C-alpha cells in the first residue's frame, strides 16, 4: 500500500518544522527521507504515526486517511517504527522485548490469558516462534535470554527493528537505524533491510545520515531542509544535486563535490566508527544539538504512543512504565 503525504505542514509555535511537503512512498519500495539536522525528518515520522497531528495537508496509507486515527490505530493499520533514540525495555531480556510488542497483535482475550487456556498457550508459542525467527534474521537468536542492555549499540538498533516487525507491519519507518554502526555493521543492515522488504512484502521508509546505507539501499530519495522539500529523485540524481550538496555542506557546491556513495564508501578504521557513520557532516553542532533535543522530546511523545499501542489490547491506557530507554 502506498503511503502518501500531500502538502503536509506542521508548525511548533512560530517554527515551521514541516512545510508543504508532498511525496508518495510506493508499495514495497525502500524509500529514503534525508536532510541535515533539524530538517524535519523525525517530525514527518511523528506525523505519520499520529504522535503529532499535521496542521495542513493529508497523510494516507492506501485509501485510509490517517489524520483521525490514534497512534494505536495507525499501528494496527500497518505502520510500525523505530526511534532515533533507542527505546528498549532495559530490564527485559532480548526476546521479552519482542514479545511485549505483541500485546497489540494478541488474539487471546485478557480472560483467556488470565485463565491460561489453550488459545493463550498457542498464541504465546506462535509469538515466541516469530520472535526467534526475527532474532535469527538479525543474528541475535543466541542472545534471546540475555538482558537487552548487554547488546552492543548496533545490535540494540537491530533489536528495535525486530521488535517493530513483530507487529507484522505493511510499512516500516526506520529513524537512523545505522547511527553508531561501523562499516561492516552498516553493510549488514543494508542486506537485512532488503531481506525484510523481499520476505514480508514490506514498504520501508529510511531516515538516515549514513550515505553508505542511503545510497546503497534506497530506490528513491526525498530531501528536506528546514522543513521544506529541496530535492527528490534516484540516488544518482540526489548524490549530484547542487541544492542537496549545498544543504549538507552549508555552502554553494562547486560542481565537483558529491555525497559519499556506496561505491565510494571505504571501510573506516575500527576507531571512530560513529563519526564515519555520520557522513556527510551536519551543518553545525549547535543546530544538531537543538535538533536532537527536540527530537528527544518528540520521541518521548512517540514512546507514549507506543506504550498506548502495547497496552491497547488490554484496554489499559494508563498502565505501566514502558518506554524506558536503555540509552
Ligand atoms: N516537539 C517539538 N517542539 C518544538 N519544536 C520541535 C519539536 N519537535 C521538533 N521540533 C523542531 O522541528 C525541527 C525539525 O526537527 P526534527 O527532529 O524533525 O528534525 P530531524 O530532521 O529529525 O533532525 P535530526 O537529523 O537532527 O534528527 C527542528 O527545528 C526541531 O527543533
Ligand atoms: Mg531526527
Description:
This protein has 327 residues and is α/β, with parallel strands linked by helices. 40% of the residues lie in helices and 18% in strands. It has twelve helices and ten strands. The protein has helices at 41-48, 71-77, 94-99, 110-115, 118-137, 153-165, 183-200, 211-217, 235-239, 242-249, 273-277, 285-312; strands at 3-12, 15-25, 30-34, 56-61, 64-65, 79-81, 171-175, 203-207, 220-225, 228-233. The strands form two sheets. The chain has a six-stranded mixed sheet with strand order 6-7-8-3-9-10, sandwiched between helices. A four-stranded antiparallel sheet has the order 2-1-4-5, with helices on one face. The longest helix is centred in the last third of the chain and has 28 residues, at 285-312. Residues 263-327 have low confidence and may be disordered. Bound molecules: adenosine-5'-triphosphate and magnesium ion. Residues 41-42, 84, 295 line the site of magnesium ion. Magnesium ion (MG) is lined by residues 41-42, 84, 295.
Instruction: Give me the side-by-side strand order of the main sheet.
Output: 6-7-8-3-9-10
Helix content: 40-55%
Average the pLDDT over all residues and give the rounded result: 79
Bound molecules: adenosine-5'-triphosphate, magnesium ion
Based on secondary structure, the structural category is: alpha/beta
Strands, count: 10
How many DSSP helices?
A: 12
The residue ranges in which pLDDT falls below 50 over 5 or more consecutive positions are 263-327
Span between termini: 33 Å
Radius of gyration: 19 Å
Query: What fraction of the residues are assigned to beta strands by DSSP?
Result: 15-25%
Oligomerization: single chain
Amino acid at each position: 500500500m502506498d503511503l502518501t503525504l500531500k502538502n503536509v505542514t506542521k508548525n511548533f509555535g512560530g517554527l515551521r518544522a514541516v512545510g508543504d511537503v508532498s511525496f508518495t512512498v510506493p508499495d514495497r519500495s525502500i524509500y529514503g527521507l534525508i536532510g541535515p539536522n533539524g530538517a524535519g525528518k523525525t517530525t514527518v515520522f511523528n506525523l505519520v504515526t499520529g504522535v503529532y497531528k499535521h496542521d495542513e495537508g493529508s497523510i494516507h496509507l492506501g485509501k485510509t486517511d490517517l489524520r483521525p486515527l490514534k497512534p494505536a490505530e495507525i499501528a494496527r493499520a500497518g505502520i510500525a517504527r523505530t526511534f532515533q533514540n533507542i527505546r528498549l525495555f532495559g530490564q527485559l531480556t532480548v526476546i521479552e522485548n519482542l514479545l511485549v510488542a505483541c500485546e497489540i497483535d494478541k488474539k487471546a482475550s485478557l480472560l483467556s490469558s488470565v485463565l491460561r487456556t489453550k488459545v493463550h498457550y498457542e498464541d504465546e508459542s506462535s509469538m515466541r516462534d516469530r520472535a526467534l525467527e526475527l532474532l535469527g534474521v538479525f543474528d541475535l537468536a543466541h542472545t534471546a535470554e540475555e538482558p537487552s542492555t548487554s547488546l552492543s549499540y548496533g545490535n540494540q538498533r537491530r533489536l528495535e527493528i525486530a521488535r517493530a516487525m513483530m507487529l507484522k507491519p505493511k510499512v516500516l519507518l526506520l529513524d537512523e537505524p545505522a547511527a553508531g554502526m561501523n562499516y561492516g555493521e552498516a553493510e549488514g543492515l543494508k542486506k537485512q533491510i532488503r531481506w525484510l522488504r523481499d520476505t514480508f512484502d514490506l514498504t520501508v521508509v529510511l531516515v538516515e545520515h549514513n550515505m553508505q546505507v542511503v545510497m546503497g539501499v534506497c530506490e528513491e530519495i526525498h530531501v528536506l531542509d528546514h522543513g521544506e522539500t529541496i530535492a527528490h529523485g534516484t540516488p544518482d540524481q540526489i548524490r549530484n544535486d547542487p541544492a542537496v550538496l549545498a544543504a549538507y555542506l552549508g555552502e554553494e557546491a562547486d560542481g565537483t563535490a558529491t555525497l559519499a556513495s556506496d561505491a565510494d564508501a571505504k571501510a573506516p578504521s575500527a576507531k571512530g566508527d560513529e563519526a564515519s557513520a555520520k557522513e556527510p557532516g551536519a551543518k553545525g553542532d549547535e543546530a544538531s544539538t537543538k535538533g536532537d533535543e527536540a527530537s528527544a522530546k518528540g520521541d518521548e511523545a512517540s514512546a507514549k504512543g507506543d506504550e498506548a499501542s502495547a497496552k491497547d489490547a488490554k484496554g489499559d491506557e494508563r498502565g505501566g512504565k514502558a518506554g524506558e530507554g536503555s540509552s
